[in-house]
Design a protein that fits this description.
Layout: H1 2-10, H2 14-43, H3 46-67, H4 75-81, H5 86-108, H6 112-119, H7 123-148, H8 152-176, H9 180-207, H10 213-223, H11 227-247, H12 250-263, H13 267-286, H14 291-313, H15 315-322, H16 334-356, H17 360-385, H18 388-415, H19 425-444, H20 449-465, H21 467-478, H22 480-485
Length: 486
């Protein structure tokens, strides 16, 4: 059986090989990252782990302003538009990032005391942050081009190299430096800076030009309108930890970070599914044949239902193994953030329609409203109820984000005279409500492990009985890529 699978992979089209290779690589990368969490949570205090968490949060926010998310957004379209000048486009985008980074440093260096106080980071880490951003973005440009051209072997090799070397160096530094929180940050940043720095230089050498004016205009015209959307996503993902540190302390931010990492670890599964689902959906919309999407979107929701429910119901044991007793309070954050993950799927259904009809204004408006609500709710409830409140404010913000985008989707469909019949809304609503109910039940049983595992066992028995139907449903989703290529 294994030999037959290997033969079929060897004879498969290069696009299929690349898809499999990237999926396996992504799983290995996430697994290595997840495995290292227990090491660092035991070697670092909650304060030290919180320092790394705050650094990562600022990194996500600074990436929006210093790179404009240029490796994403316009990049895939640009690889088609500038098919014969891809290296020049990459160099042009890299120059934009370099100029923005230098401008920030010109503003930062004369007033670094003020900046450091505001960011709650020392000068060394701020410099490391911008250097890592610039070099890792260069790496993202290179890998984006390779992925587009299905040259997957070098990308997989570099990704795995980073996944091994970064935590390895961080571990060595943590064991040998007194400031262990800083040591972990430097370990990761140094590896990305060195390897990314190599590709920063290589990208310019391949282009032989620093930039081309028309390419800079193209990149800015496409990505600048999306900054607010990207920023809102970063606010959803990072502002909680920054505000927890501000209102409570660094240790609480570290505990929350562990819970958030666990709750959102399945986002890559959602992204992998979406990468095959969206092209298939767009083809169906273009052919005015979206009836099958009702079933497909419902199946995807059920898959995420099962995966996320597994995380919620065994969260106390995962947190104990992954982080230890000092992080036990993190378990109360897992359910609301997992619900946010489910809501993100539903929101993505609406956003897919908005993107198809190129309606960016509705998405930006929804993003602003949701991000502002998240900040306001955090400012009110974190001081009152502690860091656990941040999980629930995130959930409420995602509910608003979904509602806003659902309304926007209906408006876009009506505007384009397209029938609003793509999703089985009653069944999707039932799935969401059932998910929330079972999540609440799992939370109430966190202190009753025997009862909780009896319920889990009952659920597994039901799934085993229905295994053939479940396998058939999963295969139906997995066949989307094949149908799309046909």
């Amino acid at each position: 059986m294994i030999i037959e699978k290997l033969k079929s992979y060897k004879n498969a089209p290069v696009a299929a090989k690349a898809s499999v290779a990237y999926t396996v690589c992504n799983i290995l990368q996430k697994s290595l990252s997840f495995i290292t969490v227990p090491l660092f949570t035991r070697l670092l205090t909650t304060d030290e782990y919180g320092e790394f968490s705050v650094y990562s949060s600022w990194q996500g926010i600074f990436a929006i302003f210093l790179t404009l998310n240029l490796p994403y957004g316009s990049f895939s379209k640009a690889m088609i538009t500038y098919e014969h000048k891809r290296d020049q486009y990459i160099a042009s985008c890299q120059t934009i990032c370099t100029v923005l980074t230098l401008l920030f440093l010109l503003i930062y260096l004369p007033l670094m005391g003020l900046w450091n106080s505001w960011l709650e980071l020392p000068t060394l880490l701020v410099i490391m942050l911008v250097v890592e951003l610039l070099t890792s973005t260069a790496l993202a440009f290179w890998s984006g081009k390779k992925r587009f051209e299905f040259e997957y072997k070098s990308v997989v090799a570099v990704t795995l190299l980073l996944s091994v070397c970064a935590p390895a160096l961080a571990l060595v530094l943590v064991l040998n430096m007194p400031e262990r929180g800083t040591a972990r940050i430097i370990g990761y940043a140094a590896v990305y800076a060195v390897i990314g720095g190599y590709f920063f230089i290589a990208n310019y050498l391949k282009s032989r030009k620093l930039f081309e004016t028309d390419m800079i205009k193209y990149a800015l015209r496409f990505n600048l309108p999306l900054i607010i959307y990207y920023l809102s996503q970063v606010i959803f993902n990072q502002s909680d930890r920054l505000m927890i540190k501000h209102y409570i302390d660094t240790a609480s931010a570290g505990i929350y970070s562990v819970a958030y990492t666990l709750s959102m670890m399945l986002v890559f599964v959602l992204n992998a599914i979406n990468n095959s689902y969206v092209p298939w959906l767009y083809i169906r919309i273009s052919k005015n044949d979206t009836k099958q999407n009702k079933q497909i979107s419902l199946i995807i929701a059920l898959i995420m239902f099962v995966l996320l429910m597994g995380v919620i119901w065994v969260a106390p044991e995962i947190i104990l193994v992954m982080a230890g007793k000092d992080y036990r309070e993190a378990i109360w954050v897992v359910p609301p953030v997992c619900i946010s993950n489910m809501l993100l799927l539903y929101t993505q259904y609406a956003i897919n329609i908005e993107f198809y009809f190129e309606d960016k204004k509705s998405l930006v408006a929804a993003s602003i409203a949701s991000a502002v609500s998240n900040i306001v709710l955090n400012a009110i409830f974190i001081p009152m109820f502690g860091f656990v409140a941040a999980g629930y404010t995130t959930m409420i913000s995602y509910i608003l984000f979904f509602i806003f985008n659902y309304i926007a989707m209906k408006y876009v469909l009506r505007k384009n005279c397209t029938e609003d019949d793509m999703y089985d809304k009653p069944k999707l609503l039932i799935v969401l409500l059932a998910f929330m109910g079972l999540a609440a039940l799992g939370t109430m049983l966190y202190n009753y492990m025997i009862i909780r595992y009896c319920v889990i066992a009952a659920g597994l028995i039901v799934m085993f009985i229905m295994r053939n139907k479940i396998i058939a449903l999963v295969k139906q989703v997995m066949s989307l890529k094949k149908e799309k290529e046909e």
